[in-house]
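Input/output pair, single chain:
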Amino acid sequence: MVRPRAWFQSVSGDPERYPLNEVLYRDPKTGALLEVVHDLEALKARTPAAWMKTFDERYGRTSWPYGSGVWSKHEWVQPHVAPENVVSLYEGNTNLFWAERYGKKHLQLEDLWVKQCGTSHTGSFKDLGMTVLVSSVKQMISEGKPIRAVACASTGDTSAALSAYGAAAGIPVVVLLPKGKITAAQLLQPMANGALVCALDTDFDGCMRVVQELTKDPTIYLANSMNSLRVEGQKTISFEIVQQFDWEVPDWVLVPGGNLGNVSAIAKGFLEMKEVGLIAKLPRLVCCQAEKANPLYLAHQRAIAEGRDLQESDFEPMVAGETLASAIRIGNPVSLPKAVRALVACRGLVEQASERELAEAVARADRTGMFNCPHTGVALACLEKLVARKVIGADERVVVVSTAHGLKFTEFKAAYHEGRLPFESSLANRPLEMGSDPAEVVAELHRALDAVVP
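Output:
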C-alpha cells in the first residue's frame, strides 16, 4: 500500500506544499491560513471496507496509540508522527447519547443524539485537537527543532487541554486568559498542571493579539486554532459519529461556534470520508452562535437577504458582548475562511440564541438526564428554533455536538437555579429547607412529591 502522507497548504488555493514539521501557521507568501492536506489517493489504496474494519478493530483497545479516538485514525490525522511521540490521554471515544426523552418531550424528534465531547480527559472537545498538536511538537523536538514552550490564548477550555497535554509530554506551556472572564474550574485546570498562567486585562481577541506577537519567536509554538494541526484531531468527531452509527451519516450536525475551528474541522472530516468512499453523502451543518457574539450569524443573514451563498466578504468583526457562553465570546474568529468554506460545502446554516434561550435549553436538557455546558445550550436552543420553523424535520436524524462538561460551568448553573440571572428561570430547582423530625420531613416530602411534574 502507498504510505499515507500529508502537508500544509494555503486555503487560498496556492499549490505550494509545506512540511508538517515546520513552525508555520500562515502561508509565507500570502498570509492566508494553512490547512493540512492529505494524499487522498494514497488513502484510497485501501478500500473503504478495509478502513472501516481497521478503525473498528482499534476502537478502545490497548495497542498504543490506537485506543485513542483520535489516534485510531492515525493515517488520516498525522501520519508522520511516530507512535513513540504520540502524547495521548485516551481522548475521544465519547458517548453518542440518544437524547430520547428531550427529543420527544420538547421537540417531537425521535432520532436526536448528543455527542458528549465533554466527557474527554480535561472535560472538553479541545483534547481532540491538543493531542495532535502536542504530539506534533514532540515529534519536531525529537527531530531537533528548538521549541522551548507552547502557548495559547484561551477562554478556558483550550488552556486546560494544552496544559494537560503539555504536562504529559514534559513541554512547558504558556496560557493567556482574559482576566475575570473564565470560570474558576477553567482557571484552576492549567494552574494545577503547572502552566505559566497569565490573566490579561482584555477579552479573548486581545489575548489572541498578544499570543500572535509572542509566537513570532519560533521557539514558542502557537497552539490556537489558527494552527491547523488542531483541526486534524477535532475532525475525528465526524469519524466517531458515523462509526457509532455503523457508518451511516446523520441528516444534521449542530455545533456551537466561536473561533470557528470546530465547524471547519467537522466539515473536513465528513468531506475527507466522502472523498475516500467511507460515506456516500454529507450532513447539513449548523453553526450555532450566542446572540451577543454572533458575527458569522450576521454575515449569514446578509447572504440570505441577497439570496446567495455565504461569502467571506459578508463578515464584519465585532466586539463580542458578555455572554453566559463564555468560551464562544469571540468577535473576530481566526478560522473564518475555513468555516465559510465548510458551511457552503455542507449546505450549512448559522443560527443564534439569546441568553434566556440558551439557559432555558440547558435546563430542559438537564431535566432529561444531561448536564450541559452553556455552549451546548446555544446549540440546543438553535435546534429548538430550527425545529419550530420546520427547517429540521421530525423524521430526520440530528446530532448536537456538546463541547464541554457542565461541571466546568457550575457558577452558571448555580446562578440559574438561584434566580440570579437577569430573567426568570422557569425550571429553577432549589433545595427544600426542612427540620430534622422524621415525621415532619416525611410529610413535607410527600407534599413535595405530589407537586412534582415528570
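The longest strand covers residues 284-290. The chain is about 40% helix and 15% strand.
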